[in-house]
Amino acid sequence: MTSYHVVALALIGGGAGGVWCLQKILDLGEGAAKIFIELAFIVCVALVVGDTMPQKSGKPPFQQWSEGVRPSRETARRGLDRLGVDPEGALASRIVGLFPKR
Q: What's the whole-model pTM score?
């Protein structure tokens, strides 16, 4: 699966370049079209990552969610800590609060 993820990253990079080019083309157009293109790109990236990136269990997030496995507040805290974000900070605590206590 390593080569698949390299290709996926290349597609994401190419998509970002494509969105940049489209935005340059749409500079004369409406602001709503730009926002739609950006949101569509973000949704596509989230879908690719959610469907392909394996977790510790070896399963992608969408498959785990369909099986009923959901992250808890503790796993959210660990994830934020691994990213170098203080899980007890103002914004991080709000994000952690979105997850169930379990």
A: 0.51
Task: Give the sign of the dihedral formed by CA 7, CA 12, CA 13, CA 17.
Answer: positive
Rounded to an integer, what distance in angstroms lies between the CA atom of residue 86 and that of residue 77?
8
Going from the C-alpha of 81 to that of each of 49, 72, 73, 97, the distances in angstroms are 20, 14, 12, 15
From residue 35, give the alpha-carbon distance in Å to each of 16, 30, 89: 14, 9, 30
Q: Are residues 50 and 79 in the same domain?
A: no
Contacts of 36 (CB under 8 A, 6+ apart): none
**Quick one: 55 and 7 in the same domain?**
yes
pLDDT tens-digit profile, the chain (102 residues) = 567 778 888 888 888 888 887 777 767 666 777 778 778 888 988 888 888 887 778 888 888 888 988 888 998 898 888 888 888 888 888 888 888 887
Q: Are residues 11 and 51 in the same domain?
A: yes
